[in-house]
Amino acid sequence: CRFASKIPLNPIGCGFEVIIIPFISANSWDGFTYLLMIPLVYCFSQQKISQFDIYSSGYIVAGLGICTLYVYSKTDILAGWNDNQIGMIGLFSYLYYAISLFGKISFRKMSIGVTISIIYMILLTQNTESRSIAIFIIIALIMAYFGEITRKITDKKRFVFIALSVPLLVAVAIVLFPQLEIFQAFNKWSEQNYGKSAFNGRDELWMYTFQNLSKNYYLGDGKFLINHHNSAIAALGVFGVIGYICWYKLLAIPVRKMTYYIYDDIVFGCLMAFLLIFWQQSFDLGFISASPNMIPYVILGVGLGRVKTISIYAKNKYNNTRI
Question: Most CB atoms within 10 A, among 20, 65, 142, 305?
C-alpha cells in the first residue's frame, strides 16, 4: 500500500482499469456498473453544500433509515432482504446523519444525536446479526465527542495512507491469527456465546482469495460474484494487484483533498463518516460490488462539494478585498 501511494497514476486511467480488468479476466462488464459511482461522486462534488443542507438532509436520511429498520423488523415487506443488507443501510444512513455531529454543536443537537444513536442501536442489534455495526456507531459517537483530538490525528502526515490501508491490514491479521495457539480458545468462546466461529469463515475465505491471487497475480479473476466481506480483499480478488493500486488511488485523491480542509466541520464530518464506513467494510461488503451501496459515495461527493464551496467563498472574499 505504501508502494501504491507513491505511484503517479492518472485518475481517468485508474477508472479505466476498473472496467478493463473484469472484461479481460472474466469477460464481464460489471466493472462498468461499479465505475458509475465516480460520476455520482462528481455530481455531488459540483454542488454548493451549506450547513443547512447537511442538517436537513441528515435528519431526512436518518428518518428513512429508521423507518426501513422498523419496517424490516415488524413486517414482511422486506422479507427478501438479509440482515447484512439491512444492517449496512442502517449504519450508512446513520453515518450520513452523524456528519452533523462532528465539530462544535449545541447541547440540544448532541442530545438529539445521542437519542437517534440509541434508536439505531436498538433497531440494529435486535434485528441484525452484524456485531461490527453496533461497535461502529459507538466509535462514531466517541470520535464526534472528542472531535478536536480526532481532528489532530487526521491532520498527521501519514493519515491517508494508514486510513486506506485498514481493510488490507485487518485481512492479513485475521488470516494469520488462526495460526496462533490462542485462536482455538478464542474460537471456542465465540461458538459457545454466539453460535458461530470467531470470524464466521472470513479467515478461510480471505486465505482462499490470497491463494487464488497467486494464479492471476496482476489482474485478479474479474468476478464480483463472491461476497468477500472486505473491500480490500474484494479489490484484490476482482482486480488483482494492478487494479487494487488503481482503486486505492481513486480513493486516496479525494480523501487527501478533504484532509486539507478539515478545519471546516462539514468536511471533517464527511471525511470521518466516509472513513468509518470504509473501515467497517473490513468485515462486510457493500462498498465494492457490481451494485454497490451509493451512500458512501454520496458522502464522499458531498465532502468534495463542501470543499469546492469553501474554495469559491474564499476566492470571492479575496477578490472583494482587492477592489
Answer: 65
Q: Is the pLDDT of residue 3 over 50?
A: no
Query: Per-residue pLDDT averaged across 287-310, rounded?
Result: 90
Q: What is the DSSP string of 50-117?
A: -HHHHHHHHHHHHHHHHHHHHHHHH-STTTTS-HHHHHHHHHHHHHHHHGGGSSS--HHHHHHHHHHH
CA-CA-CA-CA dihedral for 281, 285, 289, 293, to nearest 10: -80
Residues 6+ apart with CB under 8 A from 185: none
Q: Which three cell numbers stand for residue 162?
A: 494508514
Buried b (16+ CB within 10 A) or exposed e, 45-67: beeebeeebbbebbeebbeebbe
CA 253 to chain centre: 15
Tens digits of residue pLDDT in 111-167:
999 999 999 988 888 877 666 788 899 999 999 989 889 999 998 889 999 999 999
Between CA 249 and CA 130 the distance in angstroms is: 29
CA 217 → CA 122, 185, 232, 240, distances in Å? 44, 35, 15, 6
Cα–Cα distance between 233 and 304 in angstroms, integer? 26
Task: Tell me which of 139 and 238 has the higher pLDDT.
Answer: 139
Taking a C-beta distance cutoff of 8 angstroms, is the pair 266, 99 a contact? yes
C-alpha 297: how far from its chain's center?
A: 8
pLDDT in tens, 255-281: 999 999 999 999 999 999 999 999 998
